[in-house]
Design a protein that fits this description.
alpha/beta, 8-stranded parallel barrel, 48% helix
């Protein structure tokens, strides 16, 4: 089961964190950019090639420390078809290194269109009798606000291909409460969405008690995080908002169950751009700077889990 694989990798590395690979060209060291421009000019293809070199070096430096990566699809789509190719190659390269890959796409639609999204990101497509995997991530973030019609096609693909999803519940952004904190019959919308995640995942529960349906719950709202952990015993949490968005290790501690499982905490810019923040760090040391930040984050989070 997909979440079992994730949990086992977290346990083996003693590190419940995921590196968000959300690259913009300006995050990439200039010497990598320049090499790409020499080959392909100042083009989208050159930008995408530079980002792929950057991503592969980060994956090489992180794969024995961090159990998973989370590429955000938008950062690749903004470089056009070449960027989408880089996303595909990044997913495959990370998986070859043993990493679990969750694509952050926040996709949602209904019926046949949602089936197409699910097939693209998690499933396989048939081309003249041959089954091929378009992107092949292990999990996908999705928006559940169209209800079950938007989630059922994903559940079918998760069952068939052993994949997982993370449904937006309580997001980390400042205005999330405008809708998510509204009460319906005395319950906040985010709690109702969490209960729906429990129901959607009830037929696909793995050996550690967590289902194929996780929830996105932000580190920036630690009280709601701890409250949802108690109420959603079978729902794995993807926790954004650590680091650059202001969430800290103390705040994310409530995301974990009594065994120290049940959540994976994301950091994107703080890891990718660590080389820019480290004093006197040469740009050629960007990957090792990312590794140092990932280790610092791991130690920060796990120190609170052992309290």
């Amino acid at each position: 089961m997909s979440m079992d694989r994730l949990i086992e990798r977290i346990d083996a590395m003693k590190n419940p964190s995921v590196a968000g690979l959300d690259p913009r060209l300006e995050y990439v060291p200039q010497y990598i950019q320049d090499a790409a421009f020499v080959k392909k000019g100042r083009t989208l293809e050159a930008a995408a090639d530079a980002i792929l070199v950057f991503n592969k070096a980060l994956i090489d430096a992180l794969c024995d420390v961090v159990p998973a990566i989370k590429p955000q699809a938008a950062y690749y789509e903004m470089y056009g078809w070449a960027g989408v190719r880089t996303l595909t190659e990044t997913i495959r390269y990370a998986q070859e290194k043993g990493m679990y890959v969750m694509t952050d796409g926040k996709r949602n639609d209904i019926g046949a269109t949602m089936t197409a999204y699910a097939t693209a990101h998690l499933g396989k497509v048939t081309v003249d009798g041959v089954e091929l995997e378009p992107f092949g991530a292990d999990a996908l973030t999705v928006n559940g606000y169209l209800g079950t019609d938007g989630i059922q096609p994903l559940l079918d693909v998760c069952q068939k291909y052993d994949k997982g999803i993370f449904v937006l519940a309580k997001t980390s952004n400042p205005s999330s409460g405008e809708l998510q904190d509204r009460l319906i019959d005395g319950k906040p919308v985010y709690e109702i969405m969490g209960e729906m995640c429990e129901a959607w995942g009830s037929a696909q529960i793995g050996r550690y008690g967590y289902s194929a349906v996780g929830a996105v719950v932000g580190a920036t709202y630690p009280e709601q995080l701890a409250e949802l952990r108690k109420k959603l015993p079978h729902t794995m949490f993807l926790v954004p908002g650590y680091g650059a968005q202001g969430g800290g290790a103390q705040g994310v501690a409530g995301a974990f169950d009594e065994n120290g499982r049940g959540a994976i905490v994301n950091s994107s810019r703080a890891i990718m751009c660590a080389w820019k923040k480290e004093e006197n760090c040469p740009e050629t040391d960007f990957a090792q700077a990312a590794r140092r930040e990932a280790i610092r984050m791991r130690d920060d989070i796990t120190s609170y889990l052992h309290h």
